[in-house]
Amino acid sequence: MKRIAVITGASSGLGAAFAVQYAARYAAAQRCDELWLIARRADRLDETKRLITASCSAPRLHIRTIPLLDISGLGGVRQFQTLLRQEAACNPFTLILLINNAGFGIYGPFADTPPDEVLSMIDIDIYALTGFCAAALPVMQPGAHIINTASLAAFLPVGNYAVYAAAKSYVMSFSLSLNAELKGRNIGVTAVCPGQVATEFAQRALGRASAKMPRGAQAPHVIAAHGLRCAFKHVPLAVWGWRWKLQAFASRFVGRSLFATVSFRWIKRL
Fold it and tell me: Fewer beta carbons within 10 Å, N or C terminal of the chain?
């Protein structure tokens, strides 16, 4: 039976790092036959494939790039279901890993954000992630893993990131609940909660290519390697580094309303 791993948002940043790290460190041990890379930009997916080929520890691993124009909402979930049905019609297979990394955030007051951008964020960060999990579970067997990319913003409401922080809070809560539900099936679910990562996130969130990289941003491959390591050790919540761990712990003692107010007033544009 063919063994397949799937990564969304794999064209750049953390998603590409997940793909490279998985192929280099875990694909051979997991006897993975095929790695599906899903994202919007075909040219960037080809670049990720090239990086994987250069570092892959599993010489028989087949890399399949799947450029979907839009994975958001019900339409994106149905596209994924179609891919799974088409594969099942050709070959018996099982999904051994799903990494839901596709997503984005928008910086600024909620009242100033166009409704279509707000709903697009929810469609990808929440709807697609939840739907991909639901579509994947019927073709997963014991020993499979799901990794959902959340954020350090999941622990408290953040002013100027109201929808993004709320969406990532959902991802964290959903992942922890799903992990508890699937323990009996020996399927692990891990929420990866990074702080600032050196990716294109800031440029998209702020809506300008000139946005500076946040100070102290961590390299994507470091976060990806840590997330994969936690997942395969069945750790449900992956927070890298003592500073981020301290922030996550301290969130238990900070008033939600107070933090939302302070962050709105004092977190400035980069």
Answer: N
Distance CA 189, CA 177 (A): 9
Q: Which domains does the chain have, with CATH numbers?
A: 2-266 (3.40.50.720)
Q: What is the pLDDT of residue 201?
A: 60
Active site positions, annotated: 164
DSSP string, 134-176: HHHGGG--TT-EEEEE--GGGGS--TT-HHHHHHHHHHHHHHH
Cα distance between residue 137 and residue 66, in whole Å: 20
Whole-prediction pTM: 0.90
5/24 Cα distance (integer angstroms)? 13
How many residues belong to the chain?
A: 270
Are 194 and 103 in contact by the 8 Å Cβ rule? The answer is no
pLDDT band at 198 (very low <50, low <70, confident <90, very high): confident
What residues contact 222, with CB distance under 8 A and at least 6 apart?
Answer: 240
Asked if 219 and 200 touch (Cβ cutoff 8 Å), the reply is: no
222-249 b/e with 16+ CB inside 10 Å = b? bbbbbbbbbbbeebbbbbbeeebeebbe
